[in-house]
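Why LysR family transcriptional regulator? Reviewers of the renewal asked for a concrete example.
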Amino acid sequence: MSLYPPLKSLPAFEAALRLQSFSLAAEELNVTPGAVGQQIRKLEEWLGVELFTRSVRQVYPTADGLAYAARIGPALQQISDASAQLRHRQDHSVHFVMPPSFAAKWFSPRMARFLIMHPTTALHVGSTEERPNFDHDGLDIAVRYFDGNDDSLEAVLLYRGQAAVYCAPSYRDELGLATPADLVRATLINDTKHHWWSDWLATFAGIAPEQSRLIKHIDIDQTAMVIEAAIHNQGVVIANPLLTEEDVSEGKLVHLFPQHVLTVPLGYYLVHPKKRELRRQVRLFRDWLLDEASELTQVYSPIGVSRSGR
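Here is what the prediction returned.
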């Protein structure tokens, strides 16, 4: 018998265990679920133990499967990292993803600055709300909106989470929005991904959550669309100040009650896998992003609230 297990089986085993699904592993590896099952059976036969308990709809790792994964996982990651580093040593590309709202409202207006400074870099940009999969998607670096806690990632805070209130200048004047309490007469545009209104109204307007639910509101599940609705006089939006920076500077939005800004437990973090050496072009892009972020002066004095992040 060979000293090595069937090597083609190892990626199938790792993906199936991580995703707890042969079907999802097959989708990630671009093969059929049957092929994943076959590779894992080969590995089980070679090892002489069962690695998964199979049910009709799901698979569960056995104790032997979990122990085996813990031993071979670091080695598989080392193989992946060493191969990628060698293959991409002369690569001048940067593969980068971020949340759609961050892409539309903050990154897009700045992207040309980086390309002018580094014209030989091939920048590949994407947007997603999902947790970035660096290995599967071939990503170098990402911006992620979360609490910064992930043992697998190096995470550097770009912007702390804040919630401030905005509307179109004409909407403010039409409704006479002079104090936070005046918002009972407004239409509140609610970003369903970020439930900040009840905390903001309770903290600054003295409106209890059960009362705030009675205020007229519109629910939208896309942050950029929420901000556009406010620009077009549909109501008052609550958003992170960095996403409204350009619209405020152009006079499309006004910041209502700028002394009243909440700190929320999430933020925009620049992330990449731990222990992965970044190529020169990626380091240049990372440093440029950090420099751009540092130039936006935090002019607010936000009040923190204790609440759980989403």
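The domain at 8-89 is CATH 1.10.10.10 (Arc Repressor Mutant, subunit A). This is the kind of structural detail the renewal will allow us to pursue systematically.
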